[in-house]
Design goal:
- This protein is an alpha/beta fold and 555 residues long.
- It folds into three domains: 5-64, Roll (Ubiquitin-like (UB roll)), CATH 3.10.20.30; 70-227, Threonyl-tRNA Synthetase, Chain A, domain 2, CATH 3.30.980.10; 244-548, 3-Layer(aba) Sandwich (Rossmann fold).
- It has helices at residues 23-28, 68-90, 120-135, 147-156, 160-166, 229-244, 250-260, 263-287, 303-316, 354-365, 439-454, 459-476, 495-508, 517-527, 545-548; strands at 5-10, 13-18, 38-43, 46-48, 58-64, 97-104, 107-113, 141-146, 173-179, 182-184, 201-205, 208-212, 292-296, 320-325, 370-376, 381-389, 395-400, 418-424, 430-432, 435-436, 486-489.
Length: 555
């Protein structure tokens, strides 16, 4: 019987392959023709792993380790190899738990508990084992098992976070990945074999260690290990707090929601944030000479609500705060610089009239009466409408803008009068011990919900614009975060369970043939882990109200 053949279109090339040919075999013919290794493929617009087989005529697009999706696949696969190497090196009986906590640069911070001692010598042996596994190009096998079977397996493996997680899964089956005899669950696709993961390193750090990995744009290079102490301390403090609340992973959160509801968790989390804001206000007052409170942070970190709440706390401590939005100092739209794609770049420093901002701030510092501008976003012009301000002894300016930590924005202002605050939503909740929730996911979901409510922007548009937003953050915000005097984590342990109610309908609105559907599908699958909760009990001054609506502030 003649074997059925299918046409595969790759760019301008059309080739025929027998039915059942793996995508790995097809990709093998194009090895060396792409900037980076091909780790996944898009088949008629749908993301597929390379072990999958050809079933019909199709258009094939390559996903390399230089693409964002491919980069995440590389990082995920590296974690699987690391875990196998740890268990191989220490022995299963000597490892109680290995936990991935949060990003550190382009890598991840892990801790380990059990009889095996975490030291330099042990880590060196783990790295040697990882290199052996990579060099052997061992297939990463994907297997579908029933949810009940998965629960049973992970109980035997003493991976209790996963056991708890799967009790809340609606689906009847679960995909597991294995390298030889080591089996685990991961949220997202994997490389076809271990040979893809050639670039990594391990460094002891604090109470754990860091798995160093390449950055997205340079997949064949490990950047120097340069830990950012301030952001790490904030992340660690947040992690310790959620552990004190016994909510380290999504399964814990679901347990608490189903057994006691959300109210107590919500009230404790909000009280913790208010206490932190009060401590920041107290420090500003104690320092005595601060006139410019510079607040900066990435998109959807809750800067506006935070600045309002900080202003209230400053007032309660006897000061007179005045909000200043750096956005009001935008240059007129016809003077806005263009980015490399010819689009107006509203996020670069040159989009701000830095000279006028410094003149006005210096005049205020000197006690002069200054008329402040208001930027008209409809006309794209800066306007003056009689908004005058003169600072007295107790007055302080609360200045919010993405460039707040960059001294080039406030170059003329004496350093001793500035107090810098970095705010971000640093999600500490994990899906389980080996699957973290990226902080960028939390912020993207916040933005999808807020933009749909306040700007009528579809989830499709928000997802499409997100890479540009992220580029702006990488250039204008993250390089300056360690310059902050204090850092504030605006993430709330319960927020994704609330945002699910708002985000899911918006994500379902993206058609399957849209390029943004892949990301929408990933986020919808992510929400499947959570038991949803209503938002009625969220306080009206909560940072979360900036996104779901109902805030008592003008946000």
């Amino acid at each position: 019987m003649e074997q059925k053949m299918y046409q595969v279109t790759i760019g301008d090339t059309v080739r025929e392959y027998p039915a059942g040919t793996t995508y790995a075999e097809i990709v093998g013919e194009f090895e060396g023709t792409t900037e980076a290794p091909i780790i996944l493929v898009m088949v008629n617009g749908k993301l597929r792993e390379l072990h999958k087989r050809l079933k019909k005529n199709c258009t094939l697009t390559f996903v390399t380790t230089k693409d964002q999706i491919g980069h995440e696949t590389y990082r995920r696969s590296a974690c699987l190899i690391l875990l196998k190497a740890i268990y191989d090196t220490a022995g299963n009986e000597n490892v109680d738990k290995v936990i991935i906590h949060y990003s550190m640069g382009s890598g991840f911070y892990f801790t380990m508990s059990g009889k095996a001692e975490l030291c330099r010598e042990f880590l060196d042996r783990v790295k040697e084992r990882m290199i052996e596994i990579v060099d052997a190009k061992i297939p990463i096998i994907k297997k579908s098992v029933s949810t009940d079977d998965a629960i049973s397996r992970f109980h035997r493996y003493r991976m209790y976070d996963k056991e708890k997680l799967f009790r809340y899964r609606r689906v009847s089956r679960v995909n597991l990945y294995s390298i030889e005899d080591f089996e685990d669950y991961f949220y997202g696709f994997m490389a076809n074999h271990t040979g893809y993961i050639r670039y990594f390193d391990l460094k002891l750090y604090d109470e754990g260690f860091v798995l160093l990995l390449p950055e997205c744009g340079q997949p064949d290079m490990i950047p120097p290990f340069a830990p950012e102490e301030k952001i790490f301390r904030v992340q660690k403090e947040s992690q310790e707090w959620i552990e004190k609340m016994d909510i380290a992973c999504v399964g814990d959160l679901n347990d608490r929601i189903t057994k006691e509801g959300i109210r107590n968790i919500l009230l404790v989390q909000e009280a913790l944030q208010e206490a932190r804001i009060s401590r920041i206000a107290q420090r500003i007052v104690q320092e005595g000479n601060k006139k410019f409170i510079m607040i900066a942070g990435p998109s959807s970190s809750g800067k506006t609500t935070f600045s309002h709440r900080l202003s209230i706390q400053l007032t309660a401590h006897g000061m007179k705060p005045h909000p200043i939005a750096v956005d009001n100092y935008f240059v007129n739209r016809e003077h806005t610089p263009l980015d490399e794609f010819g689009e107006k770049n509203y996020e670069c420093l040159e989009a701000i009239d830095v000279e006028q901002f410094n003149r006005d701030m210096l005049d205020l510092l000197e006690g002069k009466r200054v008329e402040l501008p208001v930027f008209n976003f409809k006309t794209g012009q800066r306007e003056y409408k009689g908004d005058f301000l003169q600072l007295g002894k107790e007055d302080v300016l609360v200045i919010e803008g993405i460039h707040g930590l960059n001294d080039k924005l406030s170059y003329a202002l004496p350093k001793e009068y500035k107090f810098k605050i970095y705010i971000s939503a640093l999600t500490q909740l994990n899906i389980d011990e080996h699957n973290r929730i990226p902080t960028t996911d939390g912020r993207l979901i916040r933005r999808i919900v807020r933009d749909a409510r306040t700007r009528g922007t579809s989830a499709k548009e928000t997802i499409a614009r997100w890479p540009s937003v992220r580029r702006g953050e990488e250039e204008n915000i993250f390089p300056f975060q360690e310059e902050a005097d204090v850092m504030f984590n605006s993430a709330l342990v319960y927020e994704l369970a609330c945002l699910k109610v708002y985000a899911e309908p918006l994500l379902f609105g993206i058609d399957k043939d849209e390029p943004e559907y892949v990301e929408a599908k990933r986020l919808l699958k992510f929400f499947d882990y959570f038991v949803a909760v209503p938002s009625e009990d969220i306080p009206h001054n909560s940072i979360l109200r900036e996104f779901v609506g109902g805030s008592c502030f003008d946000v």
